[in-house]
Structure formats: C-alpha cells, structure tokens
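Hi V.,

Quick status before I head out on leave. The structure for the redesign project is tokenized and pasted below; the design run finished overnight.
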C-alpha cells in the first residue's frame, strides 16, 4: 500500500483530477489509497503523476454556492501544469439554488477548459484546419459526466443531470474535441 508514496519519474506525464466530493474521495475509507485518482495512479504506473485536486461540494457554475474556480485547488491544478486533465464537476450544479444559473453552465465549462488549455480558445472554424489544430493540442482533457443520482440526496437532481448538464458536457466535448467518460 506504500506504492503511492513513490516519487514520480522526472518526465512523468502530469494528470490533474479536478472535481467535487467524488474526486476528493469524500466518504471513502483511506481515500488517498482508494479514491479514483489513487486507483488511476496505480493503473497508469510511474510514467504518470496523478494528483487529486478534488474539493467536496464544488460547482462548475461560477455563480454556484461553492464555485470550483474560486478554490485554491483550482490555482494549484493550474500551477501543476498538467498534460492530462480529468474534470468531474456538475453534480452539485444540479441543486435548484445552483441551477438558477444553469444558463451559464456552458460558458463556465468553456472558461475552465480554455484556461487549462489556451490552445482550445482560438480554434479555427474551418473543419480541416480545426481537426489539425485539435490533433496538435498539448493538454488532453476528459470530461466525466456526473454519476446518476438514484435518489435526491443532498438536493442533487437526476433530471437536471440527465436532461441539462450531460447534454451540455457532450456539446462542449464535441465542439472542442474532448473525450467524455
């Protein structure tokens, strides 16, 4: 179990896991060993350096009750200069008091990905040039859809996740050539 304490290789590919409690590992015994970022590190091995930048209860929405992009973890993730980013936000955005600002979800998501990868901010409109530019983007970004909310715990609403948040994530992924998990 001490494998996670090994130092990464100097040229390791940097992977930043950005998200809410699911990324943070809230409620998981020994989250630093059993949370998904730790398991990802174990699976990828020492050629990768996976860091957990999760903060419980955070939103993608900048006008949400606890916006991720106002956290120190966001600044730390940017300073990490990741080669790969896994973004797992949206669950807490589905709460009624946050989703009042749902019309801004897409622009806030685009702001996050273009801040993480400025190359994505100025993509050409032409399909061929755009495809070529996307192939040359250095930072790879993966968008994770929120897990299903089987019951409305913590005021999280499955209908908003399924009908509003996931479609926006898929639209942004398509627009910017991102993978959806």
């Amino acid at each position: 179990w001490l494998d996670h304490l090994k130092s990464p290789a100097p040229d390791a590919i940097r992977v930043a896991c950005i998200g809410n409690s699911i990324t943070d590992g809230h409620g998981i015994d020994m989250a630093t060993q059993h949370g998904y970022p730790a398991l990802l590190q174990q699976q990828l091995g020492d050629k990768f350096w996976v860091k957990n930048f999760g903060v419980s209860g955070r939103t993608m929405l900048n006008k949400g009750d606890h916006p991720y992009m106002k956290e120190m973890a966001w600044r730390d993730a940017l300073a990490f200069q990741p080669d790969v980013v896994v973004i797992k936000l949206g669950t807490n955005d589905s709460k009624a008091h946050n989703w009042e600002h749902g019309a801004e979800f897409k622009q806030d998501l685009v702001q996050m990905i273009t801040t993480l990868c400025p190359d994505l901010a100025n993509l050409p409109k032409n399909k061929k040039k755009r495809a070529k530019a996307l192939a040359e983007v250095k930072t790879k970004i993966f968008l994770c859809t929120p897990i299903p909310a089987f019951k409305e715990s913590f005021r999280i609403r499955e209908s908003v996740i399924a009908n509003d948040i996931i479609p926006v994530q898929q639209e942004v992924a398509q627009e910017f050539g991102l993978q959806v998990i």
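Above is the designed sequence. The chain has a mean pLDDT of 91.

G. will cover questions while I'm gone.

Best,
W.
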